[in-house]
Amino acid sequence: MDDSQDKSATCIALCKLRPLLVLVVLAALSFSAFAETQLDDHLRAIIWPPYQEETVQLMREYLRIDTSNPPGNELAAAEFFHRLFDQAAIPNTIYPYAPGRANIYALIKGDGTLKPLILLNHMDVVQADPRSWRLPPFSGEVLNGEMYGRGAQDMKDEGLLQAMVMLIAARQHLPLKRDLIFLGTSDEEVNDTGSAWMLENHPETVRGAEYLITEGGTNLTVPGRGTVYEVGVGEKAPLWLRLTATGRGGHGSIPIADSAPDRLVKALARVVDWQPPIHLLPSVEQYFRAIARLEPEPRAAQFRDIRKSLQAPAFARSISRDEEYNFLLRDTVSLTVLHGGPQTNVIPDTAYAELDVRLLPGEDPKVFLGQLRSLLADDSIRITSANRFKPPNSSSTETILYRLIEQVVHQYNPQAIVAPALGGGYTESQLYRPLGITCYGFNTLEVTPEVDATEHAADERVPIEQLRRGVRVLYELVARAANQ
Ligand SMILES: [Zn+2]
Question: Which strands form 461-463's sheet, in the order they lie side by side?
């Protein structure tokens, strides 16, 4: 068949169809514009003060439930959410999996056009010693506009806001193109048995989801510097190692040249002098670009194009000395445990050290161990793992949800910087990313470094005004994300 004939035939067909095509496109455009206006109308119609007041009241109730882990007792928290969801006629299920321990799952169905969005939060908190607190850690009491309680930063604040978003969505009949899922889990602070149990026994509850929002984001307001919204897009993974040297023991008065402690210390000296090579991840590059305007020149310009700047040895050296940034650029090694003999006059036959190694997303622990082994240059030193290694992973920022986060944050705080953040520690996102879910650590509360520092510490608290503001920002984000 002749090509030109074919083309002209296609053209005739298309020309005839053109008016129809135009109509279809116009209809689609006006439909999406209509859907957007409809969502805007929905958001405008909400009367916020009662919901904001309810958020504060429920936050107090939630903080009063003691879910210190160990032992956890998260079942009490699951029952608290269960009661709230039942009252709003939101289908929900408690999944008990051990005495006192449970996860809770709630679902508001969307029309199925888009894949589900999960709001994930852990209900357990770390322990609190009331003696070092200004107000009792399970009181939810308020002082100077701040509500005190273990979990007020990590992460009962976010969990409660996520629950409020579900309640408001149900009561206001939020139109949804995606299913909206709330998942409250147990035991994140210790062994993560809650999420692990859920994924093993009820993978259907999260299967096919596209997005997940959980902890791992922090928004610090520093006077004179403004507010930086750090959106957690990935985490480094802890690879804890024990290095053990063995040898001949003896009396301290008669030195042994190749004793276990001597060989261990010589090998460790090589480790502490070592910096693994720089490996710049795209999200880290984006982070530096985002925060560049907080820096004075010439650093601002260097941060804007960090990839190029790092090619200059002087800059690479200076940023490697900066604790705040160095860990973002490479795998890191911290020497944390040293153990030799129990007595000064005894040369022990065994000595060991432990290293807290953190690997960047995408790194292979076998490759790292190979590098370490050759650096130690002592085959008699045994390397064993001291934790259960979970491979590090990350999510791209090239998504609709990330764009919406930027958009909604700027709507409420036009000056804020939104930057993708690489976390130094573990979050549950690591378990959900391998299922193909884009996971972000995102929080809507803006806090000072002083309040932020109370996480896992005494006087953990949350500013009440931020709860009021935060519920609104999170609702708007979820409403928009659930419709596009
Ligand atoms: Zn947490």
Answer: 142-143, 146-148, 461-463
